[in-house]
Specification:
The chain is α/β, with parallel strands linked by helices. 44% of the residues lie in helices and 18% in strands. Strands 1, 5, 6, 7, 8 and 14 form a six-stranded mixed sheet that branches. A five-stranded mixed sheet has the order 11-10-12-9-13, with helices on both faces. Strands 2-3-4 form a three-stranded antiparallel sheet. Helix 3 crosses helix 10. The relative contact order is 0.15.
Length: 314
């Protein structure tokens, strides 16, 4: 920068520099309002001394309602860390946290309407969703998996566990196609798992029955009672459910890669900066491994690498 602003300038250079400074000043004035708008959420939090966080009660282990009827889970724990940082950066002596349960259908509307400042759940960051809301840096390397009953037919297990997946539609008279078309698959309504499942069946022209469910517990129950042959959902959620029961099995296969993130309102850059800074520093800390292990077990090398690469430098 010193070379660009050396003292020995010709007159036309000084004039050009003057125009540049004038343009820069105008730019600052014209962008002052958006910068203020970006701080509106933090201004409201500071004025009220309260932050409202949305959480889903049925997305264990990311967010759920525990036996004490309080919000709990991995995403909830991350949001608590963010609350502490917001309190510190705003210089507040105290900060009240109001937890508001949200649903799959209304969670983004609640966020856009200002009913909650941050969603502490299990939301996949997609380009389509970025039209509605903004996202933090990723909090977990999610992806779609499949849950079956332990006594599921080996043929179904082999077909779903196939790797790599077929690169072309299964021919109409094949045993695999005929077998799948007699099966019923479920996914939670409004999730990326539902759109992925219907899209894949359509792509391969397989007329299997799809039975959408309202929540994960309903989908798991359908697998248990045999109403559905498989539940497609985020594999981390399925693994947590399988640990609580000996009747289900989760395939090793990960069908997609879908990074989870915390959702907030768009055009809220100052708030997002605090969120991303908190998460980045947490990922680099020794404390984080214990927090992660509490919900998913000891992190393996792939998980450690994921969070190391996700954390942003100061």
């Amino acid at each position: 920068m010193r070379g660009a602003f050396s003292e020995n300038r010709r007159p036309h250079q000084a004039q050009t520099l003057g125009f540049a400074f004038a343009f820069f000043a105008v730019t600052l004035l014209t962008t002052a309002q958006p910068a203020s708008a970006a701080s509106a959420n933090l201004d409201r939090i500071k004025e009220e001394g309260k932050i409202t966080l949305g959480y889903r009660a049925d997305a264990q282990p990311f967010s759920y309602r525990d036996r004490s009827d309080k919000p709990a889970g991995y995403s909830v724990a991350l949001c608590q860390q963010i609350v502490d940082q917001v309190k510190a950066e705003l210089g507040l002596a105290s900060l009240t946290v109001q937890w508001v349960p949200v649903t799959l259908a209304d969670r983004f509307d609640d966020l856009k309407q200002g009913k909650v400042a941050l969603l502490c759940g299990a939301d996949t960051a997609t380009l389509a969703r970025r039209k509605e809301v903004a996202f933090s840096i990723p909090i977990f390397p999610g992806g779609i998996g499949a849950m079956l009953r332990n006594d599921a037919p080996s043929a179904l297990r082999d077909i779903l566990a196939e790797a790599p997946p077929p690169s072309h539609p299964i021919w109409r008279g094949s045993p695999a196609r005929t077998f799948l078309e007699r099966k019923t698959f479920s996914a939670v309504k409004g999730t990326t798992s539902e759109s992925w499942l219907t899209g894949r069946l359509k792509e391969f022209d397989i007329a299997a029955n799809v039975a959408p469910v309202d929540n994960y517990e309903a989908g798991i129950q359908r697998v248990l009672n045999g109403s559905s042959d498989a539940l497609f959902a985020d594999r981390a959620i399925l693994l947590e459910a399988a640990r609580r029961s000996s009747s289900e099995d989760v395939l090793d296969r990960l069908f997609t890669y879908e990074p989870f993130a915390l959702a907030l309102r768009r055009d809220d850059d100052d708030f997002r900066l605090i969120i991303d800074r908190t998460l980045s520093r947490l990922y680099k800390s020794k404390e984080f491994r214990g927090l992660y292990a509490a919900w998913f077990g000891k992190p393996d090398d792939s998980a450690i690498t994921f969070f190391r690469l996700t954390a942003l430098p100061d």
